[in-house]
Amino acid sequence: MTAITSGRVTIPAWRVVRAAWFRNRMTLTVLLAVFAVAAGWTLYEAERMRSWLIAHHIQQCIIPVNGVGSACEPLLTWGRFSSSFQAYYVIFPLLGAPVVLATFGGVRWLTREYETGSFRYTWTLGVGRFRWLAGTLLPLLAVAAAGAVACGLAYDRWFPAGQWLLSSPPSGAPWEWNEFPLTPLTFTASVLAGFGIAVCAAALIRRTVPAMAATAAVTAAGAYLADTRLRTWLITLHPVTARAEYGSSAGSPSGGGYLLRGWLTDHAGHVAPGFLITHDGGMMLPGGQLGTALSTGPAASERAWLAAHHYTYWISYQPAGRLLIFQASWVGALLTVAIVAFGLAIWRVAGSR
Amino acid sequence: MNTAAATTALGKRYGRTWALRDCSLSFPAGRVTALVGPNGAGKTTLLTILAGLSAPTTGTVSVLGVPAGSPRSRLSVAFVAQDTPVYTDLRVRDHLRVARDLNHQWDQRLAEERLAGFGIPPGRKAGKLSGGQQAQLALTLALARRPGLLLLDEPLARLDPVARHDFLGSLVTACYEEGISVVFSSHVLPEMERIASYLIVLSDGSIQVAGPCDDLLAGHRMLTGPAGRAGELAQRLGAISVQDGTRQSHLLVREAGDPPPGFQSREVTLEELILAYLRDQTATALPGPGTLRAEAVIS
What is chain B's alpha carbon radius of gyration, rounded to the nearest angstrom? Predict the structure, then answer.
């Protein structure tokens, strides 16, 4: 039998990656352009807001705040700032980006090989399917990660001023649903998980439109669950409980901590029924004397009344320092999803002979 | 016989359906093997297994002495699939560039000269090429890899007669100049006859005919004689096909000495032979002692 005598059988990885880059450079360029536009728009809005605040001599509110300083009161009461800028022009595109980019930028990466039949050419070349897929996905992941980091950094620039549009009063750090997934770390993890799901759907379904529909559904559901289940679960883990001053900035966690809830106890240490301060600053008041006393204001009078009637105000909160831990945990969960999804896709492609 | 590829008791099942069953074959090295069969006979399945795109359910396959689909086999096997898929959005020169990066052996000069010879502009996107040019591009990409074994799955299907002629001419030239072994599946029988020196007919997932074309042709005769006697003769001579007209009868039989009285014997063409076996899928022409000098056997 005629036999193969050549010794070396492995093509260097950089050549596979270079071929993948070259083969897909148009798609990658478009993807980069989309990320660049998103990051550019976020930066543009950030600078516009900063200029506005500087022009109105309240630039000290641009930094993460320790509660609501008196200098920043105008931002909450004027309404001019919130009517001049729209947070959701920035927030919604960024929140939707992982779903949209994965659906339209990730699925066709594989399905076009199946639909055009070119996989029968590609997979019979000098590289195996595993190395071909890994080499092909590497430029995609590099571009997606770089673009996501750029968007996250732009959001970091936007947030100190933009937080005044998102919550009232702002906590000074991105704890809420519309803030938490947009930092450089979390946004990158979201994008990578989205692309992982897209590539996995493409490998399993093999047809563009059904795989796009599946990707959109799974990534959207995943984003919803990541917020309503994972984030809300994480930020309620082991809260710190402390006495606080009711109705003042000292009654909120300091330095970007996150208020989970506030409540009152009476002279015997029993929780006052019907009273609750929620994480978003909402207040539930009981009926009767206590409710009447706390609905008349001003805050100083209310505090005096509470002291006179031996009420103590308590809060439970997450210190600012834990935000990074929670974000890292959240990122870890999403990166696990991404790794499993990419692994499944590679197993499906490389193993389906 | 020096072999380019061999299968032993090869079987491939998709769900509950066997696409190939018990196929033991040897593909001769340095020759063009024609793979023929009706739709669904298992030709594409056999080629994709040889190319390493799919794995057999049963049996073994070796290509140039190593298991099909192994990294070593990918070095020396080139596959041009049905409809000659290329990247329609990629320019011709970019195809060469990508292929060069993804292969160990790559003959850029051969690729460029072949494409120039067919007047294929390097700056044009593959999707803008004609069907014939796309097929030539796919064949060029395969040949520039300097393969030891070239597998072609119905590459003529989309080509007009001129493009078909050019494609086969260039294929034969490349094979004889480079000494490449070729396995070629097609429904276009006249073209097969032009280039094939070894024939395999697949039917319903099993081997029906296997052997060198010259031996197969030498082992069969076409008998032509008066009408009315075909039935009796067919039974006596074990005819593979019978055409009993109003004036004449034609019987394709295995070599059986002198023709019966009133009948004339002549050589058969490869097309007649293939058609005869395709019409009667119970007939086989497989190697046996003292008959055909092929190496195929059926279990």
Answer: 21
Residues 6+ apart with CB under 8 A from A107: A198, A199, A201, A202, A208, A211, A212, A215
Q: Chain B contacts of A8, Cβ < 8 Å?
A: 104
Q: With b meaning 16 or more CB within 10 Å and e meaning fewer, what string describes A84-116?
A: ebebeebbeebbebbbebbbbbbbbbbbbbbeb
Judge contact between B219 and B252, C-beta under 8 A. Answer: no
List of residues 6+ apart from A154 with CB closer than 8 A: A38, A39, A40, A42, A43, A46
Q: Which pLDDT tens digit goes with each residue over A160-171? A: 888 888 876 777
Q: What is the pLDDT of residues A121-152, one digit of tens each?
A: 888 888 888 888 888 889 999 999 999 999 99
Distance between A143 CA and the closest CA of chain B, angstroms: 20
B 233-272 residues inside an 8 A Cβ radius of A: none
Q: How many CB pairs under 8 A join A and B?
A: 117
Pairwise CA distance, residues B44 & B81, whole Å: 9
pLDDT of residue A2: 45
Asked if B14 reaches chain A (Cβ–Cβ under 8 Å), the answer is no
- Tell me if B103 and A11 make a contact (CB, 8 A cut-off): yes
Tell me the pairing of strands B77-80 and B66-67. unpaired
Say whether A1 and B3 touch across the interface (CB within 8 A): yes
Question: What distance in Å separates residue A118's CA from the closest CA in chain B?
Answer: 5
A1 contacts B2? CB cut-off 8 A: yes
- Torsion, Cα A205 A209 A212 A213, to 10 degrees, reads -100
B297-298 and B17-28 as β-strands: parallel, antiparallel, unpaired?
antiparallel
Instruction: Name residue, tokens 């032509």.
Output: B224
Show the tokens assigned to B195: 């280039």
Which structure tokens are listed for A115? 């639909």
Chain B residues with CB under 8 Å of A9 CB are 71-72, 74-75, 104
Residues in chain A with CB shorter than 8 Å from the CB of B146 are none
Give the whole-angstrom CA distance, residue A63 versus residue A223: 28
DSSP H/E element including B287: none
Identify the pLDDT of residue A249: 62
Chain B residues close to A22, C-beta within 8 Å: 94, 97-98, 101
| Cβ separation B81–A117 shorter than 8 A | yes
Mutation choice for A interface testing from B102, B140, B152 by most A CBs within 10 A: B102
Q: Which two tokens stand for residue A301?
A: 């009078």
Closest CA to A252 of A75, A66, A69, A64: A66
C-alpha triplet B217, B223, B227: angle, nearest 5°: 155
- Convert the pLDDT of each residue in A210-249 to its tens digit: 999 999 999 999 999 999 999 999 999 999 999 888 876 6
What 8-state DSSP symbol labels residue A201? H
The string of DSSP letters for A272-295 reads: PTT-EEETTS-EE--SHHHHHHTT
State the amino acid at position B76 in one-letter form.
Answer: S
- Which is nearest to A18 in space by CA: B16, B189, B98, B33? B98
- Looking at residue A253, the DSSP 8-state letter turns out to be -
Instruction: Please indicate if any CB of chain A lies within 8 Å of the CB of B157.
Output: no
Instruction: Report CB contact under 8 Å: B104, A6.
Output: yes
Whole-angstrom Cα distance, residue A245 to residue A265? 13
